[in-house]
Amino acid sequence: MKHRTSIARKGSVQKHCRTATCTPPGQASHASMRQATTKGQAARGQAAIEFMMTYGWAIITLLVIVAALAYFGVFSAERYIPEGCVTSSEVICKDFQIFNDTATGRAYLSLRLGLAIPEPARVNLTATIPEKELTATRCYLVSQDGAQKAETIKVLPGESFSTYCYFPQAFTYGERIKANTAFTIVPERKYPLAAHGEVVGKASTGTAPPEP
User: Fold this and answer.
1) Model's pTM, two decimal places?
2) Which of 126, 128, 168, 203 has the greatest number of CB atoms lying within 10 Å of its CB?
């Protein structure tokens, strides 16, 4: 009986496949599924390639723009620090200027200050620009009446005075400069005081008084 059943099944298959190239129904179904899967994978691959061709250049362009903006400091927090002059309580910053001297070409930081302690004191200062790794070559002070002009001068309470610090490297016009200042204040009857300040501004052109 088993032999006859096998022969019957074989005969049934032969009824469906009477040519050499015919594929039995079960095998045809599996072949169709494999073919459909292959076509689906090819379609997905083609879609991925088309996506990259369409949007790849846009993504690359965006990355280049972001890198350029970062290089020029657009995302730097210091870029958005407002311009101004800030000092500790011993002195008052009334005005400032960052400039290249039109006569000598030197780069200057100029401050107009007031003494905020209640007694006369001798004052001097130094200045640095950390971002450029620059230290002022020399700083000199000028009294309110112009009678004193030296690296250290005597200032009366409430009196204004000006300072001029020049640097070994010229500034670029319009360049944003952040400078730090350090004052040594020696009152007549007290111990020396240390005061600090910060100046942020754009470089321009100006004229500094002759050095003492």
Assistant:
1) 0.64
2) 203
